């Protein structure tokens, strides 16, 4: 999918990008009324602090996701710190707009309440808030200061100084990716692949499933395996920007240090759509169920994010 480049905002201006279209017509849902702005041509001025949003529409951005945004930012300076998306969850689900980081860890996202958009953008632009603050204070649903419960495994907000900040693109696929990010335990890695059914000649796990042998309670994972040291140390927030836009990858599961140190060989699964970069930590045997439910739109990613102080539903008797 070839997408047009985003326009260059003027200093102090934030782009509000529509990524949901019907017959080429931009759909904004109720967002423009909910954010409490006054309109000045194609600009929206939010609240008393004067944050200016520039509304931009192009059907070439239809179904664009947060992780795709950094690649569309013009190469000129200065790079804007954040872009706001009016996407499918906003238009059809009544969710808050998605803020996409362009400065600290480009491509990760956090949703914010529509009525607070002006306040939060003003604090981001003025330095009173950093994008890390938004990530640290988001609930299980990816909403900043939301009431959906605290995640049991908060998404990391920064990368270790020893971690590379530049990674190659991930392979393009319409299913899932299983990416090895820890190279300290070769035996553990081979054991993980064995537990997932082993890989075929093309590097897939679960590619040739026998429907009669599938345990629907622990649906097997079908994923392309990425075993490349170039991805060592990859963090969840860095993942969305590495996923090519040509195909709509279901999810990316990271086999990280936790995978080889804890019972159940938990994988760190990364959301690519509703809240790009958000993580859910699951026993490896549950990741296939997450992928299957996302593919058929039966459940949302956040339903697999364990809540702090609560037993996850998949551990209940």
Fill in the keyword field for this structure.
elongated, 317 residues, six-stranded mixed β-sheet, 6 helices, single chain, alpha/beta, 15% helix
Structural commentary:
By secondary structure, this protein is α/β, with parallel strands linked by helices. It contains six helices and 15 strands. The strands form three sheets. A seven-stranded mixed beta sheet has the order 4-5-6-1-7-8-9. It has a six-stranded mixed beta sheet with strand order 11-12-10-13-14-15, with helices on one face. A two-stranded antiparallel ribbon has the order 2-3.
Oligomer: single chain
**Main β-sheet, in a few words?**
7 strands, mixed
SS element count, helices: 6
Could you give the order of the helices and strands? EEEHEEEEHEEHHEHEEEEEH
By helix and strand content, what is the structural category? alpha/beta
What is the number of E strands?
Answer: 15
Mean pLDDT, to the nearest integer, reads: 91
How far apart the termini lie comes to 44 Å
The outline comes out as elongated
Strand content: 15-25%
Strand order of the largest sheet: 4-5-6-1-7-8-9
What are the segments in which pLDDT stays under 50 over at least 5 consecutive residues?
Answer: none
- Helix amount, in percent? 10-25%
Task: Report Rg.
Answer: 20 Å
């Amino acid at each position: 999918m070839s997408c047009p480049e985003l326009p260059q905002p003027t200093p102090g201006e934030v782009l509000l990008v529509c990524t949901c279209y019907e017959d080429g017509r931009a759909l904004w849902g109720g967002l423009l009324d909910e954010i409490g702005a006054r309109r000045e041509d194609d600009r929206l001025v939010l609240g008393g602090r004067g944050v200016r949003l520039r509304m931009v529409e192009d059907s070439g951005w239809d179904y664009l996701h947060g992780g795709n945004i950094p690649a569309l930012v013009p190469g000129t300076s200065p790079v804007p710190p954040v872009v706001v998306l009016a996407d499918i969850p906003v238009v059809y689900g009544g969710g808050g707009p998605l803020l996409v980081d362009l400065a600290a860890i480009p491509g990760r996202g956090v949703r914010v309440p529509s009525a607070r958009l002006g306040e939060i953008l003003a604090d981001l632009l003025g330095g009173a808030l950093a994008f890390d603050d938004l990530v640290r204070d988001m609930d299980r649903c990816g909403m900043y200061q939301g009431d959906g419960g605290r995640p049991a495994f908060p998404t990391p907000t920064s990368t270790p100084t020893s971690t590379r900040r530049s990674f190659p693109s991930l392979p393009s696929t319409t299913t899932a990716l299983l990416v090895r990010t820890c190279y300290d335990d070769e035996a553990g890695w081979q054991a993980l692949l064995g537990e997932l059914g082993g890989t075929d000649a093309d590097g897939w796990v679960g590619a040739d499933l026998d429907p009669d042998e599938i345990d629907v309670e622990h649906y097997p994972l079908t994923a392309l395996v990425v075993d490349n040291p170039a991805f060592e140390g990859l963090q969840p927030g860095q993942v969305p920007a590495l996923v090519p836009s040509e195909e709509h990858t279901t999810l990316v599961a990271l086999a990280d240090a936790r995978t080889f140190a804890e019972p159940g060989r938990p994988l760190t699964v990364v959301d690519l759509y509703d809240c790009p970069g958000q993580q859910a930590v699951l026993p490896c045997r549950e990741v296939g169920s997450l992928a299957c439910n996302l593919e058929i739109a039966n459940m949302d990613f956040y339903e697999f994010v364990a809540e702090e102080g609560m037993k996850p539903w998949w551990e209940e008797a």
